[in-house]
Amino acid sequence: MLRPTGPLSYLVLLLPTSLVATPLLIYVLACNGLGHAIVPTFAPLRDPNPKTPSLSVLIEESPFRTPISPQSSHLLPGTSDEHHPHTQPNFYLPSRNPEWSERSELFPSFLHPSARSSRFSARVAEFFHGHRSSSLNSPCKPRFFMTWISSSEVFRPRDLFAVESLFKSHQNACLLIVSSAMDSASGEKLLRPFSERGFQLAAISPDFPYLFKDTPAEPWFHRLLEGKVDPGNVPLGQNLSNLLRLAILYKYGGVYIDTDVIVLRSFDGLRNAIGAQSVYAKTGNWSRLNNAVMVFDEKHPLLYKFIEEFARTFNGSKWGHNGPYLVSRVVSRVAGRPGFEFRVLPPEAFYPVDWRRIWGLFQAPRNGSHRKWVEERHDFIRRRSFALHLWNRESRRIMVEEGSIIGRIMSECCLFCNSSVNVM
């Protein structure tokens, strides 16, 4: 039982506890020399399940609603990359988590020109204009570009099949893979089967300052190297790949495709075009574009606007902000304006199946009704699509089953047909 020991104690016992507690605590702490400890600090509240923007897409109907459990292919070893299959060792920052201004000091070494990349311009000119000796080595029609930011060790059979399918439909094309990793002895070994058969392809290390020169990316890139741009939490390689493809098309013109895109037929007749990933069901107007396949003339003003938007609104912590969402934002603003002549192709052109249903294309028919759906969907894609995006982030560990839509398409689009289907 409390007993009063002085006048202040009598007063305290007569007052309500709620009125006494705080000043009493202050009094006691002050008497003990701990007055500085009475102001608490709180860590900011964080969402335990942070959300990233989801792409607005239409869900394609399939007779099977639930996907089979993806199987890990022996050809697709596990990787720590959970963001994007093309952004692994080269552009990952160390696992420690320093401030971004400190992190920026860690990556200039592999972004500055090297002995190989400093010859980028001359090597590209030689590649595009130096092959004219035979029918297969005629002038490039058209020019295709890919980028590869990871190591050559993870350039897998599925990526090689994208190259196969490209040359199946475009025997006179030139394919330039802009990549430091593939511009190596190991990369040359992977691509040798194509060059030995007379196809025109090369892997050349990028010269970022040269490619970004005289574009809005130039000052942005300088600020990045100086540590004045926060690279964010999304792998830097993924964001640089989004910018690199724009700069390449702006400087050279041609067709850019991701390495998880199967080319189904000739791109002849396509010019200044980008594909819709999804459309609104009621209106048929596009709701989301994608940058996995783009066809543009050199110096096209829309490409300049894309680059300008990248430099102006760069956010390294929002997945898709500098890629699909970027091209969607810009096109929504400039569509219909004089000087911006281009086409938005419907989803079936490049994205006939959305990423949430891609697993269905890898399944063999389960019964009669499923077999009918497989045949009808295969025929639709072959009739209506120029290319098929495999959404590697979702499908890279799914095995191709015999008789599936993907299995049929691979049999039709292969160059090295005795091995292509088996290695996928």
What features would you describe in this structure?
The protein starts with 6 loop residues before the first helix and ends with a helix. The protein is globular. It is of the alpha/beta class and 424 residues long. Helix content is 37%, strand content 11%. The chain has a domain of 255 residues: Spore Coat Polysaccharide Biosynthesis Protein SpsA, Chain A, CATH 3.90.550. It has 16 helices and 9 strands. About 23% of the residues have low confidence. Helix 6 links the parallel strand 1 and strand 2.
Strand order of the largest sheet: 3-2-1-4-7-6-8
> Strand portion, in percent?
5-15%
CATH topology of one domain: Spore Coat Polysaccharide Biosynthesis Protein SpsA, Chain A
Shape field: globular
Task: Return the CATH architecture of one domain.
Answer: Alpha-Beta Complex
Assembly type of the chains comes to single chain
User: From the helix content, strand content and strand pairing, which structural class follows?
Assistant: alpha/beta
Rg on CA atoms, Å: 28 Å
Order of helices and strands: HHHHHEHEHEHHHEEEEHHEHEHHH
Task: Give the helix proportion (percent range).
Answer: 25-40%
CATH top-level class of one domain: Alpha Beta
Taking the sheet with the most strands, its summary is: 7 strands, mixed
The helix count comes to 16
- Unreliable stretches (pLDDT < 50, length at least 5) are 7-97, 132-138
User: Can you give the mean pLDDT?
Assistant: 79
Q: Let me know the number of strands.
A: 9
Distance between the amino and carboxyl termini: 80 Å
